[in-house]
Each structure stands twice: as C-alpha cells, then as structure tokens.
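hey so u asked for the seq, here:
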Amino acid sequence: MADRTLKNKRTYVNTDLCIACVSCVAIDDTDTFFMDEDDGWANTKDNNLALEEAAMVCPTQAIFIKSLEEFKQQKERAENDPDN
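ran it, structure tokens below
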C-alpha cells in the first residue's frame, strides 16, 4: 500500500477531464495506471510515484502529481470559490 504521508507526492487522474485515450496506460511501465472497467476512464492504483511522463502525454491534462496535503488544499479552495 502507498505511504499516505501528507507531503509525499503521488499521481492522480482527474476523471472529469479524462477522455479514455489510454495514453497514460500505454506509457506507464509501473502498471500504476489502468482503465476502470466500471466507468471506462483512466485511474491509478495507490502509489507514491511522480509519473511525469504520463502527465506529459495526457492530451487533456487530466493527470496531476500532488501531495495529499496539496490535493486537500486545492479541493478546499475550489469548494470555497466555485468560480475559480
């Protein structure tokens, strides 16, 4: 299981932006990315990796690399300011 220390970076997929192009899965040699059978979008297994190559090939910029702390802060800002 991935280390959930708040400051460790990990790779996420924003499924709202994903277009299921499979580019991230194709370039990932760590088997972290997969296509979700339920909704068809790309997703990641628990990880503590910064998979920059996958983020670079994503045509919609749906892949981001952040710490859990950064993710929570961004989510909180979005909830407090939905226009931002």
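The longest strand covers residues 9-13. The helical segments are 23-27, 52-57, 68-80.
lmk if thats what u needed
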